[in-house]
Specification:
By secondary structure, this protein is an alpha/beta fold. The protein contains 8 helices and 14 strands. The strands form 3 sheets. The protein has a 7-stranded mixed beta sheet with strand order 1-2-3-4-5-6-7. The protein has a 5-stranded mixed beta sheet with strand order 8-9-10-11-12, with no helix packed on it. Strand 1 and strand 2 form a beta hairpin. The protein is globular. It starts with a helix and ends in a 5-residue tail after the last strand. Bound molecules: zinc ion (ZN). The site of zinc ion has 6 residues, from helix 4.
């Protein structure tokens, strides 16, 4: 954690980085019998253009202005989820870790899990929506592997593991330096955790009412997590959608390895969530990201949930 501590002075956020920080970093809700805790890993800030690579620049600039957002840098929230069901404790995605110093505000999952009373050794399962560094990096932080239980099961789509053996970046639009880190972190993850991987094909039930389903698109093995219990539902969408996606589902994200397919996946998911009216949680929507999807003309509307405290 040395690197993370070293950048403490650069953050404009109030409070100390640690269990007693003054920033809200967790949000709890129930889905039937299932306990859900959204935990923020922090914020990453890639160049703003990566959020809408095929948008008309003037239209995108207007959208940013309408949303009261700056034009140069788009802050992406980085949410992870802990799900408790049937005696299993499932961590969905693991945040950025500390290997990418350009994003000093992220990589906070370790102490925020601790602050939420969750010991790494109690986690029985990890589900990875995909293997980009902002989703696996937290597992690569020094000392984390040793604190996780030896019988930890890590669920990831077989297609995702296959993809990262020889990843194709030809249709992405991200800085080359980020591509290098993505390749490196995915390889390191596969090497360090190979014996604990539990690859699945299209769908797998991780715990009672907790299923992971491959969507593809963002990456070939990108998956979403569906929770169903006692008539309640919730979907964790991973990187299937972004803050721009409700009004502009056809805008490509620079991190998408197959942007056309990612768009199809996104539209299908948004239509479905609008129809079921279930709550949605997603990695890069502003914390805690709990919201609903409504249809709005040809596109969609993002309806944040009322904070329940
Ligand atoms: Zn991501």
């Amino acid at each position: 954690m040395k690197k993370a501590n070293a950048v403490l002075d650069n953050t404009s956020h109030p409070g100390r980085r640690g269990p007693d920080e003054l920033v809200p970093s967790r949000y709890a809700l129930k889905v039937g019998e299932i306990d859900v805790l959204v935990i923020s890993d922090g914020v990453i800030s890639p160049p703003s253009a990566t959020m809408a690579t095929n948008a008309d620049p003037a239209v995108y600039a207007t959208w940013l202005d309408d949303m009261f957002l700056p034009t140069e840098v788009f802050d992406w929230a980085l949410n992870t989820v802990v799900v408790r069901s049937g005696g299993r404790i499932v961590l969905v995605d693991a945040g950025l870790g500390v290997e990418y110093p350009d994003f000093p505000r992220a990589g906070q999952l370790g102490h925020r899990l601790e602050a939420a009373g969750i010991d790494l050794s109690s986690v029985t399962d990890v589900v990875l929506t995909h293997m980009h560094m902002d989703h696996v990096g937290g597992l690569l932080v020094d000392g984390v592997r040793e604190r996780l239980r030896p019988d930890l099961r890590i669920h990831v789509a077989a297609a995702e593991l296959k993809f990262w053996e020889s990843p194709d970046f030809s249709r992405t639009a991200m800085p080359p330096s980020i591509q290098d880190v993505l390749r490196r972190s995915a390889r390191q993850f596969m090497n360090e955790y190979r014996s604990q991987l539990r690859p699945f094909g299209e769908e797998h039930e991780v715990a009672p009412g907790v299923a992971v389903t491959r969507t593809g698109g963002h990456t070939p093995g990108h998956s979403v997590v569906r929770l169903v219990s006692g008539g309640d539902r919730l979907t964790f969408a991973g990187d299937a959608l972004f803050p721009v996606s409700f009004e502009h589902p056809d805008w490509h994200n620079g991190f998408e390895h197959d942007p056309e397919e990612a768009t199809r996946v996104r539209v299908r998911l948004l239509r479905e969530l609008a129809a079921t009216r279930e709550p949605l949680v997603a990695t890069h929507l502003p914390f805690p990201s709990v919201c609903h999807v409504a249809v709005a003309g040809d596109a969609f509307r993002w309806v944040p949930a009322v904070w329940d405290y």
